[in-house]
TrEMBL record:
Keyword Nucleotide-binding found: no
Binding site for pyridoxal 5'-phosphate: 77-78, 103, 153, 173, 196, 238-239
Protein name: Phosphoserine aminotransferase
Named cofactor requirement(s): pyridoxal 5'-phosphate
PANTHER family: PHOSPHOSERINE AMINOTRANSFERASE (PTHR43247)
InterPro entries: Aminotrans_V_dom, Aminotrans_V_PyrdxlP_BS, Pser_aminoTfrase, PyrdxlP-dep_Trfase, PyrdxlP-dep_Trfase_major, PyrdxlP-dep_Trfase_small
Gene name tied to this protein: serC
Subcellular location: Cytoplasm
GO cellular component, one term: cytoplasm
Quaternary context: Homodimer.
Example GO molecular function: pyridoxal phosphate binding
Chief localization: cytoplasm
Keywords: Amino-acid biosynthesis, Aminotransferase, Cytoplasm, Pyridoxal phosphate, Pyridoxine biosynthesis, Serine biosynthesis, Transferase
């Protein structure tokens, strides 16, 4: 018997129901092979087809130019925190980083093991409610790249624009907002994302890298994270995370069937508007991010009376709402609204919040 739940997890996050049903359907007999996709060689033609189709579908969805490689790696976004400096440092000694919150800071800390980090813009000064305008960013003259975090999963701050960095490659940790809207990939040197939010299951990391940057790697880079090595082996230098890759491929096909990223953009906008609309309509709930910088994917909010936090979570759990507790670094509540969260679930959350306020407000 299906139990109706409303999953607002920040990650690992919901996977489209249709995709899970298809995976269940194919689980014991993939492609008439009499075995599951988990149990076949990554080098056989059946899995190569999965790999090639998923890459092509992702290229179609994101409109990825031909001079970019798409890699399907392991190690998560935190692995990329190290892989980025090790792959892009070249002969430079430093890189520019934008500090927009928790995940940007984690990326900075890891990069500092490998090169000098200049923090060129710091949201700390505004309590991470917004970022300084680009005119105020202090770009350095000899940076290997500029790194930023387009969406801060914990803080709930999302860039409303793509920064301009001229000839210096722009690197983005797109873990929590990749595939949520169309973007111009040609503005980036590297885009990377852990899969477990908007792509598929944990254990897979997507990296999109411009060809000319493959030459900048350092010998210290582990081969499994070396973009040039993995690109030359079609992401199969080592055994890839095959089941996660297969599921990601099903998610890409689901996205295409639903109208691609332009359609996702509209739905995500509507979902976010509904939830922020509810939060803004009353003093009972609040979110303190500057409206231009509010994340559409991760919506943290607090109750005017923090004593009610625990009651809110208990009552929500009774109604089938999962993972509304805010990250421990910030407290309060958080609802993540990735692509696979249906709009009807946001409607259910808004109704629950209204009802809760009627009872406890
Ligand atoms: N960057 C961002 C923006 C994230 O949201 C997360 C995970 N929540 C990470 C990095 C870390 O990802 P992983 O656990 O895949 O290393």
């Amino acid at each position: 018997i299906d139990k109706q739940v409303f999953n607002f997890s920040a990650g690992p996050a919901p996977i489209p129901r249709e995709v899970l049903e298809q995976a269940r359907e194919e689980l014991l007999d993939f492609n008439g092979m009499g075995t599951s996709v988990m149990e076949i060689s990554h080098r056989g033609k059946e899995f190569i087809k999965v790999a090639e189709e998923s890459e092509q579908d992702l290229r179609d969805l994101m409109n990825i130019p031909a001079n970019y490689k798409v890699l399907f790696l392991q190690g998560g976004a935190r692995g990329q925190f190290a892989a980025v400096p090790l792959n892009l440092k070249g002969s430079k000694k430093s890189a520019d980083y934008v500090n927009s919150g928790h995940w940007a800071q984690s990326a900075i800390k890891e990069a500092q093991r490998y090169l000098n980090v200049n923090i060129i813009a710091d949201g700390k000064l505004s309590g991470f409610r917004q970022m300084p305008s680009q005119e105020q960013w202090r770009f350095s003259s000899d940076a290997a790249y500029v790194h930023y975090t387009p969406n801060e999963t914990i803080g709930g701050l999302e860039f409303p624009y793509i920064p301009e960095t001229g000839d210096v490659p722009l690197v983005a940790d797109m873990s929590s907002n990749i595939l949520s809207r169309p973007i111009d990939v040609s503005k980036f040197g590297v885009i990377y994302a852990g899969a477990q939010k908007n792509i598929g299951p944990a254990g897979l990391t997507v990296v999109i890298v411009r060809d000319d940057l493959l030459e900048k790697h350092t010998s210290a880079c582990p081969a499994v994270w070396d973009y040039a090595t993995q690109a030359s082996k079609d992401s199969m230098y080592n055994t890839p995370s095959t089941f996660a890759w297969y599921l990601a491929g099903l998610v890409f096909k689901w996205l295409k069937r639903r109208g691609g990223l332009a359609e996702m953009d509209k739905i995500n906008e509507r979902k976010a508007r509904k939830l922020y609309g509810q939060i803004e309509s009353t003093r009972f709930y609040s979110n303190n991010i500057d409206p231009c910088w509010c994340s559409r994917m991760n919506v943290p909010f607090t109750l005017a009376d923090p004593e009610l936090d625990a009651v809110f979570l208990v009552e929500a759990a009774k109604e089938g709402f999962l993972y509304l507790k805010g990250h421990k670094a910030v407290g309060g509540m958080r609802a993540s609204l990735y692509n696979a969260v249906p709009e009807s679930h946001v409607d259910a959350l808004v109704s629950f919040m209204q009802e809760f306020e009627r009872r406890y407000g």
